[in-house]
Design goal:
Blueprint (H helix, E strand, L loop, with lengths): L1 H9 L1 H34 L5 H13 L6 H8 L4 H14 L10 H16 L10 H9 L4 E5 L9 E9 L3 E9 L8 E2 L1 E2 L4 E2 L2
Helix pairs in contact: 6-7
């Protein structure tokens, strides 16, 4: 008992330091855990959309916005449980998988690569996926050629012309033009490639 007492008393300061430090760490971890779980719990308590459901809706309106068919969009809106939504998303990608039965879904991987690319390169006052260049890139992929004039010359606004040799369902030798009339990198499409008409 004397040896225990001497050990305890000789290390009192170190013991107190470790205790205080450990308590601080535990309090910090608890705070982070509460913060991480807080929004979802608070949203449910206030009757807001739960994080799970919100993530599926976000997938529909952002990730799949330009590739989801109208009938698919309507069908998704009729779903009532997250299990149904999860199954819908799984089937959505499977229908587009060029190599079904394999672990890799090349269509899905390419789609998310495009989203990443436009968010890194075309963001202006809005995220890249919301811009006109982002929309065209996500829908049709990278153009075969790009004519870029990033500065205003001879009274013309900065503009880009994208050339596609072929776009499935639209045709051959497609030209898509974007003009930055604000000078802020906000390029707007001037011709709709699906209709071939100028957009004012």
């Amino acid at each position: 008992m004397k040896r225990i007492g001497r050990t305890f008393h000789s290390g009192t300061r170190a013991f107190l330091f470790v205790s205080v430090f450990s308590s601080a760490v535990l309090v910090t971890i608890a705070g982070v855990a509460v913060a991480a779980g807080g929004p979802g719990q608070a949203g449910q308590a206030k009757g807001r959309t739960s994080p799970d459901k919100y993530s599926y809706l976000r997938w529909l309106e952002e990730d799949a916005a330009y590739i989801v068919a109208p009938e698919e969009h309507a069908a998704f809106q009729r779903l009532t449980t997250n299990e149904e939504r999860e199954k819908f998303v799984e089937q959505f990608w499977l229908r587009r998988d060029p190599t079904p039965g394999t672990a890799q879904n090349e269509f899905k991987e390419e789609h998310y690569r495009r989203i990443t690319y436009v968010n890194e390169h075309f963001a202006s006052s809005v995220p890249g996926w919301k811009t006109d260049r982002g929309r065209i890139y996500i829908m049709y992929g990278p153009p075969d050629e790009v004519e870029s004039h990033p500065t205003r010359e001879k009274g013309e606004f900065p503009f880009e012309r994208w050339f596609y040799r072929h776009i499935e369902g639209i045709g051959d030798k497609i030209v898509v033009e974007f003009v930055d009339r604000t000078g802020n990198g906000d390029y707007r499409i001037t011709v709709d490639p699906r209709k071939g008409i100028e957009i004012k």
